[in-house]
Amino acid sequence: MLLRGSITNIRRFTMVSSKSILSQFNNKDLLQTKSYVNGKWEKSGDNKTFTVKNPALAGNDGELIAEVISATSEDFNNAVTIATTAFKDFKKTTPRYRSDLLRKLYDLLIENQQDLAKIIVLENGKPLADALGEVKYGASFCQWFAEEAPRIHGDIIPSGIPGSRILSIKQPVGVCGILTPWNFPLAMITRKLAAAIAAGCTAVIKPPPETPLASLALAHLIQEAGFPPGVVNILPTDRTPEIGKLMCEHPLINKISFTGSTGVGKLLMNQSSSTLKKLSFELGGNAPFIVFADADIDKAVEGAFAAKFRSSGQTCVCANRFYIHESVYDEFVENFVAKVKKVVKLGNGLDPETTHGPLIHGRSLKKVQDHVKDAVSKGATVLTGGEARPDIGQYFHELTVLGGVTQDMHIANEETFGPVAGLIKYKNDDELIQFVNDTSVGLAGYFYTKDISNLFKFAEEINVGMLGVNTGLISEAALPFGGIKESGFGREGSKYGMDEYMTIKSVVIGGNA
Ligand code: SIN
To answer: Which domain holds residue 416?
Structure first.
């Protein structure tokens, strides 16, 4: 179905080299700039808009991608009321019906993958191949939860009281507030939304101001897939703190799912306390990557490159600090640095030769520069990279490897969220465990070894929610994704993901005895 108004929207897209990009879009209805509420496209209550910019072209002519409406508190309140009304019917739908909706959405995401990937490249800056990977990853959550929906089972539990039985039934939690980050503009929504829909919940979604366009393209496909009006509502806004607070405090929102920084997670948890909402938070990490003395160094180098530099280091599961056993340190360093020098081409993600894009904004670039500066001032050596690249674009930074990093440097203690690998030489297992676990967060970790006894010992010792052993890439729909400590709680994807959107009701049936 063609949407009225979409031609106007297309004209408002003034992308760089944009004319040629636009003319290549197969489905121009994916380009939307209004809120999707109750199955319709709505303006902002006060007519305000904000600009979406291409980080690869920051400061250049044509960085503007689109003017998008900025939804107000009143718009969000209205969407919550609509989602609450929609929930009354949606919670009664059969799991098979919801499965079919998700399967249809999966098919549409795959059908539109090329266009969706280009939208992600434009607003996020990641290379086209990575953006295509994200679309498939995002779609896979719809496929996964389409398969999970018909398998919501309860229990019949023997009671301690003669003749009685206890039933436990799983029910949808209600209206879900979904708050998502810019690093995966599509996949971080579907990972939450598909589980919520499978469970029978309705949703109000606030995408990030940096990357609202992929979420609005998703809204269009949700409409195409035939989701009932009001079940999914997506409202772009640049009033982030105000809307985050509204959603956390709203008495009609029963659940908040958030992916973002630990600092913001703490704030949202505080704000949610007045209504004691069900929460799931996927927050920051500081992932260790360990190379044991017996590791296959070639494979460890490949894994380290993938785990560190995916999306230019801008994922929560990116390796942040590398612990290399002293006996293989020199060999690892030589091969790793050679790999970084050989394969990398920074640039605009739409250029097929580009392997790595820019950072998302100036704040991210500054943090990267601060970590490099701090490490060097405390004795680290720049083995490759080390510099910002304003000649390519305002937010570009070289893929950087630092040798001789120590535990007292910022890079060993805080998530860089950028393309810097800090290499630390370690001597023995006790020292290693002490270093690795000396942090307040615990999202992902990685290690390379050929020794099966290392596998179990360290898999149990390392304090994280997810571990990659002899692999640098762990993310997929089947993985229970989530952290421990200040990296948050709750699991997304996997057979556990839907539990975050359901409550267990116990029904005691009295016996005759
Ligand atoms: C994230 O950065 O929050 C998600 C990364 C992933 O799903 O692999």
So the answer is: 287-476
